[in-house]
Amino acid sequence: MKKIETGAEVKRLLPAYPLFVKDPFFSVWSPSDELNGGDTIFWTGMRRRTFGVVNADGKSYAFMGLVPGAEKLEQKKVTLTAFSTEYEFGGEAFDLTVRFTSPLTPDDLTLLACPVCYMDYEVRPKKKLGKVSVGLFVHEEACYDRHPMPVRGGVIELPQGECAWFGLKKQLVMSQAYDSSAAEWGYWYLTGDVAFMMSSEGLTSYIATGKPEFICDDASDKYIAAFGEYENVNKAVAGKFTYAFDDTVSISYFGDWLKGYWFENGKTIYDAIAYSYAEYDTIMKKLDAFDRDLIARTEKYGEDYLLVLYAGLRQSVGAHKLVLDKDGKVLFLSKENHSNGCIATVDVSYPSIPLYLIYNPELVKGMMRPIYKFNDMPVWTYDFAPHDAGTYPYCCGQIYGLNGRREERNKYVVDFTNHKVGNQLDTPYNYPPVYGFPASSDMYLLKYQMPVEECGNMLVMTAATYLADKDATIMSENFDTLTTWVKYLVQYGLMPGDQLCTDDFAGHLDKNINLSVKAIVGIRAYAIIAEALGKANVAAEYKKIAEDYAEEWKKMCVTAGKQTPLVFDGDEKTFSLKYNMAFDVMFGTGLFDEATRETETDYYIANANEFGIPLDSRSAYTKSDWILWSATLTANTEKRKKIVAPVAEFLRKSDSRVPFTDWYFTDSGLIRGFQNRTVQGGLFTLLLDDSGKMKLN
Taking a C-beta distance cutoff of 8 angstroms, is the pair 191, 273 a contact? Predict the structure, then answer.
């Protein structure tokens, strides 16, 4: 089977490697080329020390983290698969393989939601060893956000082995609700053959002697630790640990406090650990089958594209929390990581959907349901779609563009934690929640909304889920709302005014040509919806509007043999990625002709920098998700490969050692902003196009 791995020529695969990834609060990464070359981190960059040590005959060797007093093992190789990161080490006395696996299969909701990750290992002795132990240590930093707080824990006996656990002594459940934050509630569990809770003195003792000891007082600097222990080792020995997180409460959903999908029907964290052990072989076979299928799907594009997909997969899925609402419907709620912390942001969900349309369109519906629900509440009085549904983990109504910003918000908030975080709001969340306000509240500033953007996104997403699974329920239930939104696009979409779009970091832009494309494709998506619901006359009406608008669009901006500019009536030397054409291609609706799209593609390739195509002519920065969306404008495989290759090069060479950023400079390879966002599900756009799942008829 094809492998993506380091070697003589490739020293690095990713800027940061995923180790344990499950959701926005359960996320551990290595930002170093060598697993033992630096401390592990939370996706935000905050230190989350996780140490790995092998003790052989009383001498300790570090394979993960900066372990004080332990000799560093020499790292030989890193190998990636869809759900695993594997390291190989060599030493005088033994070789070692460790593998970190995060089961996040979008096509298996039980496995996706199970809040457990694995680290498995194999020690291969080069000579007979009297005693070997493999230890995994998790520092108490896992339990708090930024500032140390008292931690309690212990060890319990499970059928699978001993399980060490800890969490804050005093927990304010659901107390963190802002960007780049970690939960200060819930409990962490580490299971192995032997487990301990210990202080730093206990770790020091183990490093010196190889004997785990319970040394734990009321001081800070506590660890939970798990061990595999072996005697008289003259052949390979192997084992595994499970690392789990029970957040106890996951989401506040319009007044309902919801636990994670796994915990439905009374299941516990101990059931999750038991399931992970009992089904280990089956789970690994399922992950391997997924990986083999992904390799087959990407074969024609080569190793570069496979690397890009490996880089985005765990990150995208792990930026969500999977729960069920009170009616048993799936909610797949993203955190807008490293951006503003919003939950269920429409223009963050939208770029991510190719991954989920391929493997499980129900997850796309789970992204949309909170938006439809909030849209129908009295406080939302507009004829366009909302931008978001709150601040993660509070799904309580849109917070983007609130009227008066800080001054007004402070009238309606209570500070439960006294956290003051950089330039974030002093208060972690709104109370009472936005959805509880009446229609007369005047909560939002129109200037900071994205009307064309979000209407187009929701219409396309809704149509796409139907084409993926032929289930018309969600669009039937919300047809009146969809009709309101399409009328907005008909009125304002062809020539958008001075509006924000999803690329809001670039500011307002009048007469945005790419945003006009989104409106036209959104109108055509509505026609698809209407036709599927048996409304033939309505479908025909809006199909014609979309086609007429596309012709008018071409007259206003297309010059034969030249790329389309950034704005209508703008400088012909300008350009922008026309990524909004992607679903016109995938639907097969033909609104924008092949000649126009090929001209765009050729211009992109000719004007690419070392690490990719700029987003538009205003700056050298780009969005990696939109680069891959734009690659669908051509059906030519070689051209697609040329578009993908610089993104893979960015991964191998970027000096910004963070989880895969989607916003970076194409000339320097440095991050401009954003990291660990779900939008990287959009990297799968070429596979979605190849699947033919979106084609009409």
Answer: yes
